[in-house]
Design brief:
The complex is a heterodimer. By secondary structure, chain A is an all-alpha fold. Chain A has helices at residues 2-11, 13-20, 22-40, 59-82, 90-106, 111-134, 140-158, 173-180, 188-205, 209-218, 220-225, 230-254, 268-278, 290-310, 317-332, 334-357, and strands at 48-50, 55-57, 182-183, 186-187. Chain B has helices at 2-31, 49-64, 79-91, 108-116, 133-136, 147-161, 178-190, 207-220, 234-246, 262-269, 284-295, 313-322; strands at 38-43, 68-73, 96-99, 121-124, 139-145, 166-172, 195-202, 226-231, 254-259, 275-278, 303-306, 310-311. In chain B, β4, α5 and β5 (139-145) form a beta-alpha-beta unit. The chains are: A mainly alpha, B alpha/beta. Chain B: Belongs to the bacterial solute-binding protein 2 family.
């Protein structure tokens, strides 16, 4: 019996590695949620061609559409967190960029210029975060917390407290397409988001950039001594996070061509952090997984979709969200994995003892 | 390097102290003006459409009526900040407090303090829910449009348009708000038995979320032929309209919203929405009059309901063309 057990364990190293990988559990959670939704609503997996929008339509498609913004902020957040920092301002930067884009459009600016300028606004806010953290050595938590509050205020100032609606502005089609359009039937914003995630991934993993970011997260002083410039790296990650948040802000506002100064991006910094943590990036820094965060981001969108599909009472949605996230985190915990091995070992010992007494 | 950092910290903390001191002075100067009665306005803060119009109107009206209004908005619907502002007004012994609360419960203690200090409280827009009779007696009057009435109007519209019954959805605001409950109660009271609400979901007053939620609901209940969507505010209705349009159902699904912002009226004219019930934010004058009457010793009605109108495409066009809408 015991012999059989050890043989089985040794025979499945791939399975073992899969079980201990965070990525696997995120994918499993994703599949489980999709299965639950399909059981509840048999048409959940159905896809149809929508003549109106020129793309595929169905529950999964709207889920992917929503996940684009989470993909953007989660990617930026991954880089920041792996330098052992945090960026709480992403939600507010989304609102500022969205507010700027809508306001520019309403004031008659060319749509491409409006897109560029609002991305620039996000980049500038990110750079301010970066400068405060890297040059002045302020705590990332407090710096970005202040930016989170200031950004929300800035969004209100930009629109004079109104929810600016650019829905009737002529010539805004490119921006509208960015959030609602389709490329070969797949939501354009999802495709754009995936391309950006891949670009960031290539930049990090095909050059030494990723390693430098991680080394800054482990020990700034030591990385400085090895010739890495931690200040530049820190500045860069916050700037990138600001820019990506601005893209997310454009996705969120362009989907309805309307900015909601209070609601746009509200609480999304928390979703981004959740996506990053689910993806296996340590909050202590020094190690990151962009693909993990990407799956985490899609998972967040899927949880929200599940809430709609199951028709969970609005009062209970935060609790449902929390329970799902906790279950995923528990499944990923290394202690749980070693626990099952531990139980097996104990059981084996017991049966061995039984065999001896017999 | 170290010294340089310390210098910055010193300058920063100095600046912070100075600004605090400046605030303190400003507050005293305002409070010390004896010629005008001082009113404390515990407000929600700019939140778009309705709220901005409402609070600007209240501030203007009180200024015009010769009051000294201290405006104290909260942020992100934080009730804690509102309670702090309320208690500060009680300590400063203002002449009256105007309260536009973010949440309907949790005001008992503060109201009791106001009662002890003999400061009259006027609730505007959202009513508060108090269990303590002493706390309740601090409230002189509630001024605002009726949310139940608005919900009833929405139900009446559906009853009239679908006498043979229909299926549809309700998009609710965040759970627990009195506005949400009252609009729902009004709907429930007036709706016909043959009208089925397939599902109610919260979209948190947000356009963007409403679009996602509506798209999900339309997918899920495709076979049940949904014919109406009752969105409890304009923002959500505008989001629902876009989801309906993308699903190719424009015109087949009637969307009813409450608030009556300019964007919603425009959408009504464009045929994206079917019916808009106004929730009139312009009642600064009535509020200022009520406060003035009370301070002058006259009796004031305990519930002042502000009239609102309903709009269809034609009357919305008229209202927009007239250009008199304040929001």
């Amino acid at each position: 019996m015991a012999g059989h057990n050890t043989k089985k364990d040794a025979g499945n190293p791939i399975l073992k590695r899969l079980l201990s990988s965070n990525l696997t559990w995120s994918v499993v959670a994703l599949i489980v949620l999709i299965v639950i939704c399909t059981i509840f609503d048999h048409g959940f997996l159905s896809l149809s061609w929508n003549e109106n929008t020129g793309g595929l339509a169905g529950p999964l498609i709207t889920m992917l559409q929503e996940s684009a913004r989470y993909l953007m902020i989660a990617t930026g957040m991954t880089l920041v967190i792996s330098t052992s920092g945090i960026d709480l301002s992403v939600g507010s930067v989304m609102a500022v960029a969205g507010a700027a884009a809508m306001q520019f459009l309403v004031s008659g600016l060319n749509v491409w210029l409006a897109i560029l300028l609002s991305l620039l606004v996000g980049l500038v806010l990110g750079c301010i975060n970066g400068a405060l953290v890297s040059m002045l050595g302020l705590q990332p938590f407090i710096t970005t917390l202040i930016m989170m509050l200031a950004g929300r205020g800035l969004a209100k100032v930009i629109t004079a407290g109104q929810n600016t609606d650019a829905g009737s502005v002529a010539g805004s089609e490119p921006l509208r397409w960015m959030a609602n359009g389709f490329i070969l039937g797949i939501p354009a914003n999802f495709v754009i988001a995936i391309i950006i995630v891949c670009l960031v991934g290539l930049l990090c993993r095909k050059t030494a950039m990723g390693m430098m970011i991680e080394s800054v997260g482990i020990n700034q002083e030591a990385s400085r001594m090895t010739g890495i410039k931690p200040k530049k790296i820190l500045f860069l990650v916050y700037a990138v996070s600001g820019l990506l948040a601005a893209i997310a802000g454009l996705f969120a506002t362009a989907s309805v061509m309307r900015v909601d100064v209070v609601k746009t991006g509200q609480d999304l910094e928390m979703y981004a952090i959740l996506a990053v943590v689910i993806g296996g990036t340590s909050l202590l820094g020094g190690k990151f997984s962009l693909s993990g965060s990407a799956i985490g981001a899609v998972l967040i969108a899927m949880i929200r979709k599940t809430i709609i599909t199951l028709g969970i009472d609005s009062a209970a949605t935060p609790a449902f969200f929390a329970v799902v996230v906790i279950v995923i985190c528990v499944m990923q915990a290394p202690k749980i994995h070693s626990l099952s091995a531990e139980i097996k070992r104990k059981r084996a010992l017991k049966s061995e003892a039984k065999a001896v007494t017999a | 390097m170290k010294n340089w950092k310390r210098a910055i910290a010193l300058v920063a903390s100095g600046a912070a102290l100075l600004s605090f001191a400046a605030c303190g002075n400003g507050g005293n100067a305002e409070g010390g003006d004896d010629s005008k009665p001082t009113i404390g306005f515990v407000a929600v803060g700019p939140e778009g459409g309705f709220r901005t119009a409402n609070e600007n109107d209240l501030q203007d009206a009180f200024k015009k009526a010769g009051f000294d209004l201290i405006y104290s908005p909260t942020q992100n619907n934080d009730q804690q900040k509102q309670i702090q502002a309320f208690n500060k007004f009680v300590n400063d012994e203002v002449d009256a407090i105007v309260l536009s609360s973010t949440e309907d419960s949790g005001w008992d203690e503060s109201l009791k303090k106001a009662k002890e200090a003999e400061i009259p409280v006027f609730t505007v827009d959202r009513d508060v829910d108090v269990t303590d009779p002493e706390a309740a007696s601090a409230i002189v009057s509630h001024i605002g449009p009726s949310n139940e009435w608005a919900g009833e109007q929405a139900a009446d519209f559906v009853n009239e348009n679908f006498p043979d019954g229909a299926n549809g959805f309700i998009l609710e605001g965040p759970a627990g708000l009195s506005v949400v409950k009252d609009r729902q109660t009004g709907w429930d009271n007036a709706i016909n038995d043959n009208v089925t609400v397939l599902e109610s979901q919260s979209a948190n007053w947000s356009t963007d979320e409403a679009k996602t939620v509506t798209a999900g609901l339309l997918d899920k209940h495709k076979s049940e032929n949904p014919q109406f969507i009752f969105a409890q505010n304009d923002e959500m209705g505008l989001g629902a309209a876009q989801a309906v349009e993308e699903a190719g159902l424009k015109g087949q699904v009637k969307i009813i919203t409450i608030d009556g912002t300019e964007a919603a009226l425009q959408a009504l004219v464009d045929g994206d929405l079917s019916f808009v019930i106004e929730y009139n934010p312009i009642f600064g004058e009535q509020t200022a009059t009520a406060v003035k009457d009370y301070l002058d010793g006259k009796t004031v009605e305990s519930d002042i309901v502000i009239d609102s109108q309903t709009f269809d495409a034609a009357s919305a066009k008229e209202a927009l063309d007239a250009g008199t809408r304040a929001y």
